[in-house]
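Contributing new complexes? Match this layout with magnesium ion.
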Amino acid sequence: MSFFNVEQAAARLNRSELAIPGSQPNMFEKAAKLPVDVIFLDLEDAVAPDEKEQARKNIIEALNDIDWGKKTMSVRINGLDTHYMYRDVVDVVEQAGERLDLIMMPKVGTASDVYAVDMLLTQIEDAKGYTKRIGLEHIIETALGMQNINEIAGASKRNESLHFGVADYAASTRARTTSIGGANSDYAVLTGGPDDDTRDVHWGDMWHYALSRLVVAARANGLRPVDGPFGDFSDPEGYKAAARRAAVLGCEGKWAIHPSQVDLANEIMSPSAADIDRAERILKAMEEAEAAGKGAVSLDGRLIDYASIRQAEVMVHKARQIADS
Ligand code: GLV
Ligand code: MG
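Output block (do not edit by hand):
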């Protein structure tokens, strides 16, 4: 291990994160009953400009009046380049800060963006006498944000998670895609050479680099990496494939832009019973090995060592978090 200690953000379950437009209060009660880990009430891109003010009022009322249970509650504010943003923070945190856990910042471009919101939050919390500190989730969804991702990730003690906003990221980088988070058949390799009779087309994942980079920046700063939206909610298999790829890379969760995607995210982002069982057996086997003075042993015909313990501990810890939720 490095001598440098990476402090971990607050431990929250973040397998599923449901987006609910602040302008659709009819959806709030139903959302509160879903088995979702995090809900973000949106003031940004799902809300038209002439509805922003009413959406803010809806959100304040809903945070105060609805029983959201143990869910983590977040509000996505407008970008720092809009005049809505300061009132989003001031009004929501002053009037509903007790029930608010996180602020989601869209299109974060630099560490100073984070500094600005951190400063504003600190002033409001101090003035109101709140003892709880509101955390920050950042959507990395511009070329600038991706370029500065490491500085953004380390910019505030409030930081909790980084999210891959694939739709805006595609727009910002001018990637050729028409779907939100889906695959593109043009991003493919052709097997073999010109003389081969049969040549296969193997699709690649055009978001692989961006998501991997986000996972590294998040983990190196003790934050949760979370994959963003998958737009086609009539394609659960496509959603699950995207969620599985994200989970394999190290993401802890994925957005749901429709209630039907919540269960899918929870399923894919939770360790399976077989994984948990194996993790528990690894811990037991290593405990026995240590008692016998050994650093590595075999389990089910495979080598396990201290690195296996760390992986198994992560798995068992996640299983406990889920059981307690
Ligand atoms: C999310 O905000 C996205 O742009 O994908
Ligand atoms: Mg976006």
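Reviewers usually confirm one structural detail per submission. For this one: The CA atoms of residues 3 and 294 lie 25 Å apart.
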